[in-house]
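> Could you send the Deferrochelatase prediction when you get a chance?

Sure thing. Input:
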Amino acid sequence: MTDQSTPEARPLAAPETREGAAVPDDRKGISRRRLLGTAGATGLVLGAAGSAVGYAAAPSEATPLTSVGAGRAMFHGKHQPGITQGLPARGHLVAFDLTPGAGRKEAAALLRRWSETARRLMAGEPSADGDTDVARDAGPSSLTVTFGFGHSFFARTGMEKQRPVALDPLPDFSSDHLDKARSNGDLWVQIGAHDALVAFHALRAVQKDAGSAARVRWQMNGFNRTPGATARPMTARNLMGQVDGTRNPKPADPDFDQRIFVPENGEPAWMANGSYAVVRRIRMLLDDWEELAVKEQEAVIGRRKSDGAPLSGGTETSEMDLEKTDSGGNLVVPVNAHARITRPDQNGGAAMLRRPLSYHDGMDADGVPDAGLLFICWQADPLRGFVPVQRKLDRGDALSPYLRHEASGLFAVPGGAAEGEYVGQRLLEG
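Output:
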């Protein structure tokens, strides 16, 4: 958790239809392809540009939930989908290990299958082979599917010389209580959508496509608020009830690409326009947190719980005054407040694009909720993004006693696939 957050995506408007009107279809239901067709030309054009609408200005009124299914992100592009889009309502993270005997050839065939499946599903089409029909009646629902490579992938495929230096294992942190079985992996897939069935459909298709080439190492499920649930798009809240940051980098920022994406002339060449994803399963100790009074919680975070505004005053987006004191001469924003410690200007400019999911995996044997944050952050270099911030948090973040980092992964996510290419082709066939 850092003082940076992603606004919820603004879903696309759906065409108005007369309630109860019959829609003829030879499959006895509105198929995903047919729903796209009924959206009309305008909806499709807007859908094609929908990749970055999560950062658009808030509309004057809420978008009805009935339009959620029409949103579409594009598979082909400069960057992979699932990085700059707004927060999905439902997400799945899954890591795979190559099976014994599977190498570079098998990995290339797998990425080719995965890329084609992702392209089809993101367009609202069924998968090529043996579609399960789970999402038959839904539109694409802003589905994104993103692929990455872990540190161990390169040794498994004999491509150690192609492994980026930025993919070196993360250092140990004092808050780590990591389960190795739920950490890292050869391959990583991130799935996000605004409909739970669409997201699960993609997860199932990816798992089936793995075939004999790879087996699931771990899999995690998460969620965010559904677009349209609030009167206007708002910064997300986490399971502690806090507005989860406000200072996420935005594509409109002049240094956004420099901070988030590997440059076109960067090293290694196959990572051009790609990014590095740090994934952390952070358990929130909610019973302990909820024993604090609201003012105590606000002091831990450094922001008001009601609206996310800094304790120094103003609104959510107001600049935090780190020097402001109260009548007793005490800092209004405590020196160990989470929002103070994680500010980029307090960390040598270190910044990362956060696109997290909340999770709840039931109760443990003592009745304590196994819940928290699937922290996902993107940066051009984790040694200049995630690592320095996490090291500083280790040295005295007031929020740390209420968190436990239980799983971790770092993945190299190459740039987007051009038409006719599959993700990772420049690595696997270079």
